[in-house]
Amino acid sequence: MVVLSKPAPLDDHYASIKTCKPRISVFKGIPSINLRDPKAKTLIIQACQEFGFFKLLNHGVPMETIARLEAEALSFFNLPRSVKAKAGPPNPFGYGTKGIGPNGDVGWIEYLLINTDQNPEISRSAVKDYVMEVKAVAYEVVELMAEGLGIERRDVWSQMLREEESDWCLRLNHYPISQDLQALSGRKMIGFGEHTDPQIISLLKSNNTSGLQICLKDGTWVSVPPDHTSFFVTVGDALQVMTNGRLKSVRHRVMTNSLKPRISIIYFGGPPLSETIRPLPSLMAKGEESLYNEFTWREYKASAYKSRLGDYRLGLFEKA
Ligand code: GA4
Q: Which of 79, 177, 186, 262 lies at a 20 to 30 A Cα distance from 254?
C-alpha cells in the first residue's frame, strides 16, 4: 500500500461559496453515456445542454494505462515535501500545493501540472501513453458533439485539439485526507474551489473517492458519485462560446474527504493560442447574434490568469 504524506495544515482553506446554493445531495441523474452507443451524439448534446457534464463509459482507454499513471502520481505525491517542492512552482507547469493560480486561491490539495515531459519525477512513457489515449477520446467526443449539433464539419473542434500548437495540459491532483477539527467534526473542506474550466473540453478520471460536485442549472450543488472506470467530461468556456451558449460550461468544485485520499487526473483540451473563439457561423439561426465579443484563446487565457478561480470569466466577453 502506498502511504501518503500528510501536508501542512492550511491557514485559509475555506473558500466561500459564491454563486450556488449549498444544498448538497448525492445526485443519481448524471447522464451516463456509452461512447459506442449509436445514440451517443444525441445523448451527449442533451447532457451538455442540461448539465455541461456527463459520465463517459466504454471509452476504450486501457485500464493498465490509467492505473500506471495513477500509480506514478501516487508515488510522486508520496515523495518527501522537499523533493516535490523542487518540481514547483506550478506556473505554468510543475508542482503546486494549496495555492491554485496566481491570485490567492487556496484549497486542500497538492497537484502537478504537466504539458510535455518536463517532470522527471513522473515516467515520461506513462504520461505519453495516457495523453495519447485520452486525447483520442476527447477528439471523438468533440466530433460527436459537432455531429449532434448538425455541424457539417465534424472535425471543427477536434482539429483545434489535434493541432501541434493546441494548448492542452494534464493535471494530477491529490486531495489528502483532511484530519483537522473541522473535517473530523464532519464538515467538509474545499479541495478545489468552484470554477468553470476555461478550455474546450476536460476529461477527468479519479479514483473511487467522492468529492466532485457540480452546480445544476437551478443553482444547487450535487455530489457526483465517483466511478474509477469512467471518465467525466466537462464542457469548458470556449465551447460554450463556440456554440453561442447552446452547450454550457459547468461550475464544479471538489470537497475533501476525511476518510480516503482522492486522486484525479484531468486532461484539459484547449485550442492553439492564436485561435479566434467565436460562435460557429454554421450553428447560428437566421438573425441570431453572438452573445460574446470575439477573442483569441490567448486573450481568454491571459484574462483567466488575472481572475480568481470562482470568477465568472465569460462575463468580461459578453455583449452588453
Ligand atoms: C481551472 C482549470 C484548470 O485546472 C487550470 C486552472 C488554472 C490553474 O490552476 O493554474 C487556473 C484555473 C484553471 C482558472 C482561472 C485561473 C487559472 C487557476 C486560476 C485562478 C489549469 C486552467 O486552465 O484554468
A: 79
